[in-house]
Amino acid sequence: MVLLTTSLFFFVYAITISHALPTPYYARTLEARRPTVGETLTMSKTKNTVATGDFSPTEGDVTFTVGDRIAAGSAGIVFKVECGANAACEALGPVVLKFYTDLDQVADEQKHLAKINELKAVSTGTGDKLSLMQGFEGTNFSKTKAYLKLTEEVTDKSQLDLKEIQTLVSHATDLAAKNALQYLELHNIIHDDINDANVLFTETDEGIITRAQLIDWDKAHIPTPAEEAGAQKAVTAKTAAAFQRFFDTPEFEKGQANAPKKPVKRPAPRPAAPGSAKPAVLGSAKPATAAAVPGSAKPVAPAAAPGSAKPATAAAAPGSAKPAAAAAAVLPATAPGPAAQAVSAPPPSSKARPAVPAVAPANRRP
């Protein structure tokens, strides 16, 4: 008798304690019954207050059929919606159904969806574990035809066109940032979970990406007055960081390392100076040689070349033991007086001996 009384006491105590403790997460998740494909559901349409993010399920009922599963994430599972002949459902436009596996995110996402006016209906009899929200067509960037063509369809990863990939990723990043900034401007809200899974891209049949659309608003916030000044810059930086992962792949890094170096552009040579065999180089240490002046025993020293510390070397005088240097110009055969005529030297590349200066017949020695 004592044993039976003791056992009954502990049984009643255990029941009391179990009801007093908070419901574990796994138990709360199991309470939310997952919809099945083909099931008919009825939910209550909402009246949204965009300014505050509040809503009230007072706009009548909407009935629809649960379609195929579209996607799954940390917060829940998304299904297609088939309105059939229900006029109230058709009037909502494109919508999808979200079933929450994480009940802690239900209230936040519904509030954010109400603020951007994309919440359409909620379930009222099961603790608001379902949301009917605006649906969008599109594909995640990693699954777009444009990206797959440049990456997955290339068998030899060393042949990846890095420039084209970078251009495409930058274009997608700009479109996603533009959409995020639109939500900031129109609804004063910042999406806190921008990533490849939470952005849908629209592309043409030719694989040209034209539009980006943010989805999954369970993680978002309204900027504080202190954040407002730098909110646009923060949104742009957040979006760029989200798509940086497409540049962090081993194939991309390897391709950058193996990319051919850009050729070094060298300045074109200056045109040759008038009467000179070599092009004039500014600041050259060896300026051009001047020719002797007719009727003079000594040639005139030319002016120093630009940037040179020494003047140009003059041609040798007639009868000198030293050969004449190359002249800038050849004197005419009919030059007056007994002056020597300068003879042009061979090109620098030639190994011929220097030419002996010609002497006028009147100055020859017997």
What does this structure look like?
Helices cover about 25% and strands about 15% of the residues. It contains nine helices and twelve strands. The protein has a six-stranded antiparallel barrel. The longest helix is centred in the middle third of the chain and has 26 residues, at about 160-185. The N and C termini lie far apart (about 160 Å).
Number of helices: 9
Order of helices and strands: HHEEEEEHEHEEHHEEEEHHH
Terminal residue distance: 161 Å
Helix content: 25-40%
Tell me the Rg in angstroms.
44 Å
Spans of at least 5 consecutive residues with low confidence: 11-30, 311-317, 324-344
Biggest pleated-sheet summary: 6 strands, antiparallel, barrel
How big a fraction of the residues is strand?
A: 15-25%
User: What is the arithmetic mean of pLDDT?
Assistant: 76
Q: In what order do the strands lie side by side in the largest sheet?
A: 1-4-5-6-8-7
- The total of beta strands comes to 12
Briefly note the structural class of the backbone: alpha+beta
The rough form would be described as elongated
Task: Summarize the structure in short.
It is built from nine helices and twelve strands. It has helices at 2-20, 25-31, 87-91, 106-115, 145-150, 162-187, 225-228, 231-243, 250-258, and strands spanning 40-45, 47-49, 54-56, 61-72, 76-82, 95-100, 119-122, 130-134, 190-191, 199-203, 209-214, 220-221.
